From TrEMBL:
UniProt keyword annotation of Disulfide bond present: yes
Class of enzymatic activity (EC top level): oxidoreductase
Keyword Secreted: yes
InterPro entries per record: AA9 (IPR049892), AA9_LPMO (IPR005103)
Domain Auxiliary Activity family 9 catalytic: 10-148
Name of protein: AA9 family lytic polysaccharide monooxygenase
Membrane-spanning ranges: none
Reaction it catalyzes: [(1->4)-beta-D-glucosyl]n+m + reduced acceptor + O2 = 4-dehydro-beta-D-glucosyl-[(1->4)-beta-D-glucosyl]n-1 + [(1->4)-beta-D-glucosyl]m + acceptor + H2O
Native source organism of the sequence: Lachnellula arida
Domain of life (superkingdom): Eukaryota
Subcellular location: Secreted
GO terms under biological process: cellulose catabolic process
Amino acid sequence: MPVTLLSQSLRCTLNQAIGGNHHGPVLIHMSKVANAASDIGSGSWFKVAEEGYNPTTKIWRTDSLNTNCEKKSFMVPADLAPGNYLVRAEAIALHTASTTGGAQFYMTCFQINLTGSGTAAPAGVTFPGACNASDPGILINIYNNLQSYTIPRPAIFTG
């Protein structure tokens, strides 16, 4: 099932989703919960989408988010068990990430109710704790002739 995340406004705005030099990846995680309206998100999260840096074009996913009217689409794995889920969309700004603790995390969550006949219940990670301040995708100088980028863990659950 395709899902498109939109900003608070349903039209393109003059304001950037994550402005300035806040370059970095965009990650999407999901967590199955008993009640999406009241759950606080302390359970297990699995990643369903990620986009980072394109060394050919030298474009970060946050840059694309800004030029794409703050929209990000992703596919929900078809074999997930039905029920309530929290979805966590996260942008990691790396403009000051050349020192430990310099990466900035911007996230938002929303609720969805999946239907279907899937049975998958992926293992996941918890937040905080999914990554460390010294991980390669978190502690990085993005202004030093960057040739590649390692997106923070966990691996994507594809179904």
